Amino acid sequence: MKKFLVLLSLILFISVHGTGFGDFNIFTDRKIVVDTLENLGGEEDDYLVEILSEQLRLLISEAPFISLTDSERTFLLTLSLKEEYGELFAQTDGSIGYRLKPHVAAGPGETADYPLFVTGRYMIGKEEKPGGTKLLEVQVDVYNSMTDMEREPAVLTGSLSDFIDDPRGFLFPFLSQFLRYTIYRMHLSADPADAFIRVDNRFAGIGSASNIIVTPGLHRVTITHDGYREYRDLVQVSQDGFTKHVSLQPETGLITHHINTTPEGARVFLDESFLGLTPLSITVGPSNRTLTLSKEGYRTESAIIQDLPQQESTLHFNLLQTALEEELKGKAERQLKWAKGLPYVGLGLLVSSIFFGIQETSKQQEADLYGSSDPDRADEAQTASDVYHTLLISSLALAGGVFTVSFVKTVQYFNSYNSISEYGVPIVSAEVAF
Q: Above 80 in pLDDT, residue 163?
């Protein structure tokens, strides 16, 4: 029965948390190879070989980071100068920090990536009396292939039943020693018992979550359940064993919104929580939470829940292609450029009109002055006056046309941006409150 419970908890743990293994870059990730532990007892205790090893892998993979010593950083900096590591080093920002992501793998492993090798052994003691508790002793060894040094082994001792009930708690002292920086455990529980618990936007458990590994400081706790108000809080963890229980409050005034988009298949988020793809129906209460719609190749749209209809409704969002958005913005900016530049041309034409008007008046006065006393000069002055009059009329007409075009371009500019802003505004196409 105990074997079954351990295996069942292990399968559930892997299915919920996964292993977190991914692509490896020696300058951003720290590889940790966890080999199977050796059973120093009888064959009947071999069932713990893989269970202990897998629990160690899962526990290390949840470490916030792996800290580097100065000698390890020096080793990596020397490695980065080698040609075969140039491409990997180019993927970084050109530096090697003191914190790397844990990249956990099952052993036996090769030394090509210079990992930390985790090995060990265990023994299950005999029952002290019928029905008594068996003692489990585990020793975990760590070898650092970068520095060719062995760390001090971690020796864990406790009852076998404690390990079966809480393997993470049993192995936590090893992790604390292994990481070489302070970590604490959080214990969270919620009512109702099937509420989803997240810590720092990472799934932690359903209803309750124990031995959540965190560093000292502030951490965001989010607990959600359909029909209840979402709980959010920043909690200060300053000691090991931080415990918090949260009772969610029932949501009142729930409203159902049926969300459609053109095109379909947009991702729907309520704040940072993913809800599904459109078309989608959601039930929420009035709040300042943000509804966000995103689709690759289209502009991301958002709306405040409190601004939506306060009754059951169907909302349709037209999504704007990012390429079309850039085209419309470019067109609007060109129209604005014309709208800003043309008034200067119009002002120039008005100044020219004033000059032409002055010259026309002057030549007309000259023509009147000479009159019959000097007909040739009078005719010449009259001709010049007529030319300046024609230029005056033309300049005024052109100025009026330029200002008209500038006004049109201004209107077109605002219309272009209004057409862009019309996308993403929810269209209430149906209300089915009755």
A: yes
